[in-house]
Write a sequence for this structure.
């Protein structure tokens, strides 16, 4: 999936450098609040909250913002009540797409997500229409140029990771959801810090796209990713580096 991996790398770099900082803060505040509401405000006893706080600190979110988000989640402070919702559908060329969002207005968000799908030759489907094509996993992505591949492979094996997947630009360590935090912390203890670490929906197979379908799929992916309520977008497309460069200029 070199094309898809390259797109993920482009998105990471773009997100770290551009004006999406506001959206990143918004989504992390929502994630912290939801995590605290589900399993309490102590990050030592709440792995999901601990990961969300780590992500917030990585983008220099002020401590006060984090603490307020935790208190909103536990009910100590009032505020909007957010819920998690998943949308499933198809993109150009039959690509399976999963959108994970947080919203305080299910009807508004659903209508806007449906409109984005239709704008870029996609269709929003019923719940469960594509989820069977994906598996929930912990995913830790490392930039190949910034890590010793042999050391990472050895450390991942020692930490009981499920798999290590390599391509030209990245090395990805995959874990079961339950083992994600333990593997992440084991790697970090050996100074192996991932460029991206999250629970993700990993496709069991991919759809190869080219030409107009490839360009439309990337536009759909980016439009969904930029929506304020969208936390994650997962899709099973595969695009050549040549088509990726033509579509993104990167």
């Amino acid at each position: 999936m070199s094309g898809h991996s390259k797109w993920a790398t482009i998105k990471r770099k773009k997100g770290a450098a551009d004006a999406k900082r506001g959206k990143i803060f918004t989504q992390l505040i929502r994630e912290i609040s939801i995590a605290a509401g589900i399993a309490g405000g102590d990050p030592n006893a709440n792995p999901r909250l601990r990961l969300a706080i780590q992500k917030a600190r990585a983008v220099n979110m002020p401590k006060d913002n984090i603490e307020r988000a935790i208190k909103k989640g536990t009910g100590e402070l009032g505020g909007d009540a957010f819920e998690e919702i998943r949308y499933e559908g198809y993109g150009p060329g039959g690509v399976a797409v999963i959108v994970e969002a947080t919203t305080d207005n299910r009807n508004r968000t659903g209508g806007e997500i449906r409109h984005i799908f239709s704008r870029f030759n996609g269709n929003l489907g019923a719940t469960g229409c594509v989820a069977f094509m994906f598996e929930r996993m912990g995913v830790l992505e490392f930039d190949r140029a910034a890590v010793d591949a042999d050391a990472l492979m050895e450390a991942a094996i020692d930490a009981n990771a499920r798999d290590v997947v390599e391509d030209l630009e990245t090395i990805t360590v995959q874990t079961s959801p339950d083992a994600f935090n333990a593997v992440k912390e084991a790697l970090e203890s050996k100074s192996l810090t991932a460029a991206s670490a999250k629970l993700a929906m990993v496709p069991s197979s991919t759809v190869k796209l080219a030409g107009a379908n490839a360009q439309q799929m990337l536009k759909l992916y980016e439009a969904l990713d930029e929506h304020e309520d969208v936390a994650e977008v997962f899709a099973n497309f595969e695009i050549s580096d040549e088509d990726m460069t033509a579509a993104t200029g990167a």
About this structure: Strands lie at 83-90, 96-103, 123-124, 134-143, 163-166, 170-175, 196-203, 207-209, 230-235, 237-239. The chain has a mean pLDDT of 89. The chain has nine helices and ten strands.
